[in-house]
Design a protein that fits this description.
heterodimer; A: 256 residues; mainly beta; 9-stranded antiparallel β-sheet; B: 14 residues; alpha+beta; 1 helix
Chain lengths: 256, 14
């Protein structure tokens, strides 16, 4: 059986909000090391890979592997019934067809319980090889979100160029064009505002901004984001969690 | 406008 407790329901609410726009139904695999999810969006442009290590829970127990087949929007609907600071417990018996969620407000002596029906989901998995990326950029998650939001007013696509001078975001549409360039920098006072670039060769890739905007909804999970890119390959975008990560693999536009 | 790539063009489905 699975029994996993979080001190604040907001932790799971934020994670679900960061992935729900891209995913419909998917399996969450639970074992003694934690919870994991890998799922493709239906257009096969973004893959979401979530890892929640058992250390990230205040209590965690999973004696044997459990697969939770869930509709992510149904999970989001139920989580809306939890207050952000409620203690949240996930529970599922072996071979059960439901996930039990309890939301507990210890001060108000309130306990709410919801049973979410589980499904058998025949899911496709992608084999992602270990890759050395040509460019790795660590930057503020909020700054990335803001930059992409600004450029989405111009075009449906953004081009990202990374070289030793920095990282440049640009877009061009009917009304004109725009770009934002960030140089590598170290901000001693606010470390999350630093921009760190590791590069083996310069890279330029273009991406759909609507999908990118959905990905950056994970900005509430982490102050920084790690972008990894290699020419002609999907990008890897990672938001670190206290024990785990939300990672996206994002297919670029195909250049001629 | 450049066509959109698919992850299944890059990675194997298992």
């Amino acid at each position: 059986m699975l029994e996993a407790k979080l001190d604040a329901a907001s932790q799971l609410k934020k994670i679900v909000e960061a992935i729900r726009d891209m995913l419909g139904e998917c399996n969450i695999e639970c074992n003694e090391t934690g919870l994991a999810l890998q799922s493709l969006d239906k257009s096969h442009i973004v893959l979401v890979s979530l890892l929640l290590g058992s250390d990230g829970f205040s209590e965690y127990r999973c004696d044997r592997g459990v697969t939770l087949g869930l509709n992510i929007n149904s999970l989001a609907t139920v989580l809306r019934c939890a207050n952000n600071d409620d203690i949240l417990t996930l529970r599922s018996e072996d071979r059960a067809n439901e996930l039990i969620l309890t939301f507990e407000d210890s001060k108000a002596d309130r306990i709410s319980e919801f049973n979410l029906r589980l499904m058998d989901i025949d899911q496709e998995y992608l084999a992602i090889p270990e890759t050395e990326y040509a460019a790795t950029v660590v930057m503020s998650a909020a700054v990335l979100q803001r930059t992409l939001r600004d450029l989405s007013a111009l075009s449906e696509a953004v081009t990202i160029e990374i070289d030793k001078e920095g990282i440049r975001f640009s877009a061009e549409g009917d009304l004109g064009k725009g770009s934002t360039h960030f140089k590598p920098c170290v901000d001693m006072e606010n470390a999350e505002n630093s921009i760190n670039i590791t590069l083996s060769e310069p890279v330029s890739l273009s991406f759909n901004l609507q999908y990118f905007s959905n990905i950056t909804k994970a900005s509430s999970l982490s102050s920084t984001v790690t972008l990894q890119m290699t020419a002609g390959m999907p990008a890897q975008i990672e938001y670190k969690l206290p024990s785990g990560h939300v990672r996206y693999y994002f297919a670029p536009k195909i250049e001629d | 406008v450049a066509p959109q790539g698919r992850l299944t063009d890059f990675f194997k489905v298992s």
